[in-house]
Amino acid sequence: MNFSFQELALIAIALDDEEATTVKSKRRFSVHPTWQKREQEGEYHTLYKELLDDETQFYMYFRMTKECFALLENKLSPHLHKKDTFMKRAITPRERLAVCLRFLATGDSHMTISFSYRLGHSTVNKIVKETCKIIVDQLMSEVLPEMTTEMWKAVAEDFWLLWNFPNCLGALDGKHVVIEAPPNSGSLFFNYKSTFSIVLLALVDAKCNFIYINVGAQGKNHDAGIFMTSSLRQRLENGTLNIPQNRALPGTNIVAPYVIIGDSAFPLKTYLLRPYPYNSGNREFEVFNYRLGLARRCVENAFGILTQKFRIYQGRIKMNPASVDNIILTTCVLHNFIRKNSENEVNSFNLESLEDSSLNNLRSQGGSASSQAFREREKFKVFFNSPVGISSMSEY
Q1: Distances (CA, A) of 308 to 65, 96, 122, 336
Q2: What kind and span of H or E run contains 171?
Q3: Nearest to 349 by CA among 292, 307, 291, 396
Q4: Model confidence pTM above 0.90
Q5: Nearest-angstrom CA–CA distance, 197 and 176
Q6: Which UniProt keywords are listed (predicted)?
Q7: Out of 20-24, 133-137, 190-194, which region has the weakest mean confidence (pLDDT)?
């Protein structure tokens, strides 16, 4: 059968209209029926009210007490609030916070959270990212404030009373947070443990609270180099951290600087003490190393508490590096916030078992040090081996 050009054109138009009608009839739901049952079957709507009746279960689910959750919600609600639309009711600030905390507490995938809360996958992803950013923006200055001279002195006093280490402003350490290999990143995030990671560098006080955190260094970087390029090192060098003036070590006339302490991954500085070489056979060196190692337990404990509370650290974090940076910052901010606002939080962990965290240590790194740095470390070694230093340890 022969058709003219005009007839063929009309047939083509008719077929296009039929195909468009078919595609339109097969179009997916604007909201999937599963998600439409959120307020009847979603985990938040079915479980939250029951958790309120059991403090222990509430704590296990959200990794914080009811009172702490309520305080956090009160601070964040104005920033988490979304307006209802003609088409649908907005997700409440409390539910948004619950979704984010549950993700951090379990490390479950966004897809798993999506099904349990009856929310779209992209919605969960957006809620987690937005809520984490709001937590950091609103709470960072409150729980990690700029340190004053008096605040530093209080930290040093705690180190002396709790860990028998004088003139100490904090314990420094860094950990590799394991992530899924970012696309097209080559070996940038590939570390000595043959995993991909982002480094969390932290200074911790005597009570396992974070004083300073640096997040975002790529796993391939040398560990001492991460500290050397950090803002902490720069401010320690240029004297803009409000560090107190040198003072005599307790019960002596040995005038020493205020210092931070670290392990052999860090360089020896006048303001940063690291151990003497191990297996030297020198008894005085061993005493110093023992006292420094004992005081450094607070930073290991802090990382242990962080990974026990937020199980997202138990596996590879499957997000892009920028989002992982924000996740790490959020957990550190929440760590301090929870410890500050929960009376029983400080004693709720078995400190003896915290050092085996799921975060990898930084690699030991040698390096040159100034003669002045050696002399400052010598002052602390002499003190720890003096009658005053030994007696303070026996009292401990």
Answers
A1: 16, 23, 28, 14
A2: strand 168-179
A3: 307
A4: no
A5: 6
A6: Hydrolase, Metal-binding, Nuclease, Nucleus
A7: 20-24
